[in-house]
Amino acid sequence: MHRFYVPDIDATDRSITLDGQVARQLKTVLRIDEGEHVRLFDGSGAEWEVEVEHVAKSEIETTLISAVESVPEPSVAVTMLLGLARPERIELAIQKCTELGTVRFIPVTSERVQGGNTGTPSPKRLERWQRIAIEAAEQSGRAIVPAVEQPVAIMDAVNSLLADQPVLCMWEELANDSKPLSTTLKSIGTNNAAIAALIGPPGGFSEQEAMAIREAGAKLVTLGSRVLRSETAAIAVMSAILYESGDLGG
């Protein structure tokens, strides 16, 4: 059954009007007919099944049939801090990590931001990234839509998160300063309600940045001797956290 993100659904009103992009997709792409059923979710975790009552020129009238049980979220709420890179790399990381269960994305600026100051995303680019997260949630069955936040400086992001959760910084230098991801996840345990993972930009973090991140209280983590692209690292880290917490297929 097709699923669509519709914010601000009033479940007390059994009549729900769909307009804008959702109505256009239902009418022109899916060619929805009266009597067909679709599912709607508002991004907060709630989901409903509705029946199409009337297809108008720019709106679609639906009737709420029932609330439905949504796909369970991972037991660990993962925030992904993404070092700025080429847009297509960030987009792939957001898409795939949303499918896996990431709850929040924070783009971060650092010394090796790809493109320098021009690498900072515009408001239009951030809107696109949020749309990618919405579409990934629709496709994967999630009833939660992760937020894609405004870019912040790397240390500001790390310091703001450390008060509430462990921060794991992926650092490719194979030295005593970095511990394997599996070892780190076992050391912090799986009872944490939240974990933040920091993925560097292409070229990684400088040694000075990595030491500052560690001194702030974050854990430096290595993913092994193979060199991974930033988007691959994000997907690998998210998958490993799910596996360690028992959320990857039980």
Automatic annotation (TrEMBL):
Gene Ontology MF term list: rRNA (uridine-N3-)-methyltransferase activity
Q: Name one GO cellular component term.
A: cytoplasm
Where is it mostly found?
Answer: cytoplasm
Which key words tag this protein in UniProt?
Cytoplasm, Methyltransferase, rRNA processing, S-adenosyl-L-methionine, Transferase
What GO biological process terms does the UniProt entry carry, in alphabetical order?
rRNA base methylation
* Domain (Ribosomal RNA small subunit methyltransferase E PUA-like): residue spans on this chain: 18-63
Gene3D superfamilies xrefs: 3.40.1280.10
Query: What EC designation does it have?
Result: 2.1.1.193
Q: Which reaction does it catalyse?
A: uridine(1498) in 16S rRNA + S-adenosyl-L-methionine = N(3)-methyluridine(1498) in 16S rRNA + S-adenosyl-L-homocysteine + H(+)
Q: Which residues form the Ribosomal RNA small subunit methyltransferase E methyltransferase domain?
A: 74-241
Bilayer-crossing residues are none
Taxonomy, superkingdom: Bacteria
Q: Does the keyword Protein transport apply?
A: no
User: Which Pfam families does the entry mention?
Assistant: Methyltrans_RNA, PUA_4
Q: What is the annotated role of this protein in its UniProt record? A: Specifically methylates the N3 position of the uracil ring of uridine 1498 (m3U1498) in 16S rRNA. Acts on the fully assembled 30S ribosomal subunit.
Q: Which family does it belong to?
A: Belongs to the RNA methyltransferase RsmE family.
Q: What is the protein's name according to its record?
A: Ribosomal RNA small subunit methyltransferase E
Naturally occurring in which organism (per UniProt): Candidatus Lucifugimonas marina
